[in-house]
Each structure stands twice: as structure tokens, then as C-alpha cells.
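Exercise (ungraded).
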Amino acid sequence: MSAAQGGTQALDSARVADPATRWSDLQNGQTALAIVAMLAMTLGPELAGARYWAPVLQLAVLYAASAIFMAILRFDAGQVSFGQGAVFALAAYAVGIACGIHGMPYAVGVVWGLVAAVATGLLFALPALRVQGYYLGFVTLSAAMVVPEMLVSLDAWTRGINGISLSLPALAEPIAHGVSPLALLIALLGVAALLLYRALPATAFGRRLRVSAESPEAARALGIDPGTMRCWAFLLTAFGTGCAGVLYPPLVGFVSPNAFHVELSILFFFAVVVGGAGQPLGPILGIGLLFLVPNAVLAQLAEYRLLIYGGLALAVMMLLPAGVAGTLASLLKARAARLRAPIRLHDVLQVLRDAPPLAGGGDDPVIEVHGARKRFGHVIALDGVDLLVRRGEIHGLVGANGSGKTSLLNLLSGFSRMDQGRVLVLGRETTRLRAHRIARLGVGRSFQTPRMFADLSAWDNLRIGLDARRGQPDAATRAVAEALRGAVGNRDVEQVPHGQRRVMEVLRVVMQGSFVLLLDEPAAGLSPEEREDFASLLIALRDRLGAAIVLVEHDLSLVWRIADRITVLETGRVVAQGSPAEVRRMPAAAHLFLGGGGA
Amino acid sequence: MLQELAIIAVRGAGLGAVYALVAMSFNIVKVSSGILNFAQGTMLVLAGMAGFLASRLAEEWGPAEWLLFLPPSVAGIAALLLVQGAITLLPLRARTGHQDSWLITTMAVSIILGAALLLTQGPNALYVRSVFANVDLLGMRIPAPYLLSIALAVATWLLLHLFLTRSLTGLAISALWQDPVAARAAGLCVFRLQLIAFGISGVILGAAGYVAAPMLTLTADGGLRYVLNGFVVAVIGGMGHSGGALIAGPLVGIVMMLAGYLFGGEFQNLAAMSLLVAVLLVRPEGLFGAPGMRQV
């Protein structure tokens, strides 16, 4: 991947203030602002000698750091958790038990705290392998309710409702200018969390998280197991929340079950959403609004604390549905120019044509289907289909709507299981293999509704294909990648016309390094010239990269022009198979050409 | 021992019937709008408090008068749910930003109501004495609300089933579940149907809270427990599947009672959570739900 980026820096410097750049400037500005706010809150009171404000502001930063990790889980991984308070609590309690009861050094307590946090994260992550979204919200919410109950009832270890007090004077003693090591640690955690939050979307891991969150199917087609990605997200979040949790006991000097009621978990979640969906300033704004305002600014109204808290959250969501920072940012984004700009494929095609033809690819079979049967309830989608696709062949799959074309594609790519029959990829049986495993074998696919991700730039939408590639890309792919990067540039994916998004998806499959391309109506919605380009693209992919292409397409003239072999399906059965000229002469395919639909 | 187990079974089934009612109320809103209403628990507690007021008055009167107060409290809770529904649905109509503001709005309403209860009632639980005498059943003395809750759950399931399959409004709400875009295109007024669903959920919660008041923990922050257990039942029964909820409810109730009996009351929620995790790992679509069909 890094090799593909090399040498394209010139393109970067040439870019003017396009929307994507302005967006990134906005994000950087927010991050800088949030860092300044965190430093001011942790170090400010101690530098200024305002000892009274230090603990509550530093606690707010600890909460904000937890909220930032929650934001990663929420917006990068698309998961709901109401249980991060439980993770925070267990990390804090582990320190409390180790240092406060057993008198171990703080460093040992920290290790135990992080272990406890990650173990809890693992518990959350296990259900995440199977389910997602609000299901996990409830699992984690019950954990947030159960943990304080357990802390009370397991009083042999936790001292129950009385809690554990501990003093760690070494951390609280000022070392210079009135600043304590503890304040430095808290500031460090806050800033590190922010930088991670800002940097994550630009990494391959961050892009994989985002793809898994927004379209699990697309992730599987890219060889990513979305469940595993959700697991990692929960573990990362648990580790970060644990880092905040272990700093709680030295700051407050006391842990008790009452401090970690389910409200704490809900506060973390609220802060993230109310502060602003996916914005760097969001978590700290949210904690400021929902924690500092009711608890510190309006401290004299203590009995109305919950009312103020709930009222603020409700009011923000009614008035600014994307949260404070989110709504402001989207207003600024809307002001950026929104023009539709088709991608010019000529350059990409030229690069492909210049690539040396693949030597010695041969024409061995890459996909074999034997007697595939699939039924959905009473509907028989596929009724004993045989198919053979060779390397370097464009195989057209045609037939009326409902004849089983997409069903067959889904079986090939592992998105559904056949009831009877076998599939072999390169001679290896894949009938029972899960979709992401089949994708890793080199079988890529596109979707009828292209899976494009509005949060990623157009180039990043293609780059997730490169991310998915096993091993280093070859010279030809690198050249294509560079040409593509030049062609799509930094534009917003929303600017790309709908028809071309399908083409982008096909190119993503190419970046992925698949030698089998399963394309589901890729040319729908393209203009006649774009169709020409697209046809040459497929031919070039076949000839220069040696790809085998299975093409489901309603435009029969396109299929007959470029396909090497054609299979005609009718109500789940193969009624004709052969070269375009042969199929044309078969009576079973004659009806396809009624009304002049053919070439 | 056998006697104790029988009592656990009946009480568990009674408590489970309340969870089943909460789950059905979850389902109708979920079916119409995809929203899971977190404020339901607090609404149930509010309905229970209406039951508390009525039982105070009925102490001097009798079961007939107690019954007289049922319709106004149900109407009150239903009205409250309608208002809450409007509050929840309005931000979703603006198509900007992430469509999950309901997570916040429903929970914030729950927090606000809980805070208001705390300010007016204080932190202590209200205890409601049932106006009915205990019932003798196979030599056990069962408090009447347990049996009434079971009867209410069965009746609610039956009425919901008839409503969703026989009435035009009910069919329209089912259509929203199958395909909201097509339903909108077919000219259904989605917003109004979703509000109606909130209202129905209010009727269910109002009746459930009022009838089950003597067995509920009526505290300002007690609502969350009912939301959670209601959700556990809804998932185990199959999301959107009220018949499943009717069976899963008593199941969950009995498991929780058993856990409380064997290990102590504070382990009830742990038992419910373990059950939820186990079902999600083994059969995420629930016992009676159908697995998702086509993804692509």
C-alpha cells in the first residue's frame, strides 16, 4: 500500500482548497482546539494555584478521554455501548483493591486495572462477533447495571458499599510550577486519545472499521470479517477506557460502587452524541455540557442535577440532531461547493493498456459450479446449475429478472449457502466457506447498489481495496492505483455520479487483487461513452491482468460484444451455454433478442 | 422444596408476564419506527404510581372502585407516550446527521421523568397493597397481581395479534416493519402510524403498571431494570414477535426468580444478562424469530 502512495505526493501539493481539504482543515482545527482545552483543564488550575477547581476539571478530562474512546466505538466502528462505565469502574476498582487493600505499588495496580478493563471489553466483544448495533447496547447496559451490584455483593474482595480509600501521595505532589505528575498523566491520556481519534480514519485499520460498520456485506466482499473488526473496536475502547479508569483512584482517593452507577455509562454515551457526531471537539464539548454544567457550574442546584442533565441532552438533540459540533461542522461543510464531476477513466485505461500482457496465465478453470440448487421458501432460485469459468475469460450471465443470476453470484461469493451442489475456486472446495474467506482467496464482487462510503474520500473508497490485498501489489496494480488516484483525486464521493460509483466499485475489486471479478449489473446507469470506456476497461482487465470476469448484465449488446462465453439462465436453470455466436443460434436464447434488445 | 419451586414458578411467571408486556410494548414501537423506547421502564413505574394512588383510595372503597380508576390512568400514560413519541420522532424527520437521536431522546425523557419523580417522591420505594385477597392455588397462597398480570399478558397478546392482522391500521403498521420506503410510497402517513404505535405502547404500559403495581419496585430510578428485562424478553422471543415475547417472558421471570432463590436477590440481573448473552451467541434471531433472509 505504501508503495502505491509513493510518488503521488506531487498530486497532493497541487490540490487547491477543494471540499475534502477544507473538511480536513476543519477537523485539524477542532483537534487543536480540543487539545488546548484539555491542557488548560488539567494543568491550568494547578499552574494558576486554583486548587479548588483542579479535581473536578481533571475528572472531566478523564471522562472526556473515556468519551473519546467511546466515540471511536460509536462513529468509527458503528457500535452502541452503554457499558463503558462498567469498564471504567472495574479498572478503577482493580487499582483500589491492589493498592488500597493489598498495598501494592501503583504500577502493579495499573497493570491489574488494564487487565480488568480489557477482560471486560472481551466480554462485550464476544456477543459482537454475532450481533451488532442496539443489541450490544442492551448487553452493555445490563453489564453497567450488574457491575455496581456485584461490587456491593462481593464485599469480601471489594469492601462492599463502604468502598476503598487509598492515598498515593507520590502522584499528587507537585514537581514543578505546582503541576503534579498525576495532572501530567491525565493531560497525556487526553491528548493521546484525541490524536488517536483524529489519526484513526486515515489508517487502514480505521478504514476497515468504517467499512465493517457501514456495510458488513462490503466488508465481507473485501475479505474482512465484520465481527472480528467489532471485537477489535471493543477491545481498543476497553483499553482506552481502562487507561482513564486507572487514573481515577489517585485523583479521587476513593472508589465506591455509588460512583459507578449506570449513569456514568450513559454519560459517556450522551457526551459523544450530544457533543457532536464524529467530531474531534464532540466528546469534550459533551462532557463540558453534561458533566461540568450540572455538577460544577450549577453546583448549588444539586437536587436539580439530573433534571438539568436530561433536559440539556433532550434540548440539544431536538434543536441540533447531529450534536453541537456535528451540526456546526455540517453547516460549514454544506457551504463548500457541491458539484457533480464525473471521473475520467481515459488515463486509467491508458495505463492498463500500457501494462505488459500477463505471460503464461493459461486458461485453467478458476471457478467450477456443479449442480447448484438453492431455494427460498417455496421459490426455487437455482435448480441444478453447472458453470465453468476459465482464467482470462469474460463470462456473461444473462436472463430475465428472477432467473437466478444474482442468486448464483451470491453462492459463488459465499453470501448465501447452496442447498445442494459444490463450488470450487482454483480446484479448492469453497461450498461451505464464509464470504470473507472466499474473498481472501481472490474472489471479488460488486453489488447492484454500489457500496460507497460517504465518510471516506473517493480515493479512500478505492484504497480500501488496496488495504484488503494480501501482500505487496505488483507493478501493474501500482501503476493503475496511481492513475486512479490522479483521476479521482481528493473529491467527495457524493460528487461522483451514481452510475460511476459502480465503476469505482469494480475498480476497488481490482485494487483488492482479485483474479475473479463477480460483477452485478456494473454498467447500469452509464452514459453511452462511459459504457464504451467500461467495456474497454473489462477487456483490458482480462488481457492485461488475466482476470476472470463473471458479468451479470442486462445490456445484451455489451455482453455479446465483450464476453468470451455466455450462460443463459431461465427460472434457475441453464438453458444455453457457449460462445456468443453459438448461444445466438440456440433456440433457447432466441427470446432474449425479441424486440431488438440484442446486438 | 417442591412447594418452594412451585411458588418460584408461579411468581416467576407473574413477573415474567410483566416483562412480556414491556416486550410487546417494545415490539409495537420497534415494528413501526425501528425505535427502542428506553423511557418505557419509567412509564411503567409512573403507571404503577397511578396504581398506588388508586389503591390508597380503594382502601376505603373496594375492587370495583379500583377498576374504575384503570381507564383514566391508562389514558394518562397513553397520552404521555403520545407526547414522548412526537418528541422522539420529530428530530428523525430532519434527514441530517445520524439517525440515532432516538437513543438519546428516549433515554433523556426517562432521566427527566425519573428526576421529576425523585424531586416529588424522594428516593424511597412506594409499596402498593393489592385490593384483591391472595388466591389459593393448589395449596399455595398466590398474591392476585401475579395471576392478573399473566391474564393481562395473554389478553394483550391476543388483542395485539387481532389488531395487527385484522384492522387496516394494524396492517399498515405491519407494512412499515416489512418495508418503510414502500409503505411511504404507497401513501401511508408514516408519522401518524408511528404515533399510533407509541399510543398503543402507552396503553399496554399503562395497564401493565396499574395492574402489576403491588409487585413492581416503584422508585425514581427503578425503570431501567424493566426496560432491560423487557428487552431481554423481546430478544429471546424474537424481535417484533409478540407471541414469542409471551412465552419468553415467564421463562426469563422464572430463571431470574430461581437465580435469586439459589444465589441471592442481587444475582437476578446477572442471570438475565447471562441469558441474553447466551441467546445472542447461539441464536441471535431469538427463539421464535426468523433469521434475516437476503442481505444483497
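Further reading is listed at the end of the chapter. For now, observe: Residues 1-17, 595-599 of chain A have pLDDT under 50 and may be disordered. The CA atoms of residues 371 and 384 of chain A lie 4 Å apart.
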